[in-house]
Task: structure prediction
Amino acid sequence: MPKSAAKRSKPLPSSASKLDLDIAKPFLEPPESYKPFYSRLSPKHVYITHIDTLPIDQKRSTFTLALVLNLLVIALLGWRIHTTTPFYVGLVQAFGGAKNEYYVNVSRTGWRALGSLAIRHVGAIFLDWFLFFYVLKWPRNFFIGYSNPLLWRLNLGFQPSEIIIRASRLPVVTEFPESIEPSAPLMRQTMGAASPTFLGGRTGYLTQNGDFDLYYSLMIDAHKDVEGKVLAIDTFKLTAWIHFAGLGWMYWPIYKEGGEEGREKIIAFKEQLDRLGKESLFFSWIELIQRETSQPGGFTPERQDIAVQKAREMFGREGIDFDKFWERLGGRDAMPGMEVTVR
Result:
């Protein structure tokens, strides 16, 4: 996550030709009214915004679970510190020559006993190293990290419409126009993180993945800008932002291509399964679609047919007639990315 706001973005250079702007599509030149937002962005990262309209209860339960898990991790680490402190103190004293329980007379100890002792001590040290260098970062980032989720919730609470902003975890190098080709890694990552199958049913807090992280401090600022009438909340509909040398900031209003509508359909799909007591089936469905859409060659009509057949079998094992369920949701147009005739 970028840790500092970028310098104010310059207006689109006059050298940017109409041809450049045509080639940049689906990315567009942002309107001047969006400048209070994109002037804060770092040109080294790609950003995705959307508005989380899931029920407040779902947002609260998701965040509460994360809070409890992080508190449990802290408790575990506290217990580990309490129980292992005597071990490390005794070990240091033994190295200093103290005749305590950790002192070993090498000349009077067999190789097998020495090997067993070394494995136990090294194993304990490695476990603690792992806990404090890797596991500790979860509660540290949650409670005290720069731009942390606890600060986000303390500032904003839980709202019916929450602005979600994600930034690419790693800096990106953009080459125009190669970076915005549909097959380019950058575009594949962006489209995957903004797809209805990824966003559907997830609260904003759960939209982090291996490529994008939540930018909590900017989310707080965005809400303040909306409350202060500096920006309209529609500024943050499902959109991707990318900076090009010579063009400046460009944005892709994904919501105009059905992204927001697709997410609403996914949510409706999940709610129908929830009513049937089959919530786990929804996540199995999402995994199936994500697996099939990530195959080489894209989500072709043939692969869509395969996905539909697998879905029939998956729903059938749960006692649900997939075809009837599909039709109740609106038939072939009910699920984005699955615009095939069920046959």
Remarks:
- Confidence is low (pLDDT under 50) at residues 3-16, 339-343.
- Residues 106 and 114 are 8 Å apart (CA to CA).
- Residues 56-95 form the longest helix (40 residues).
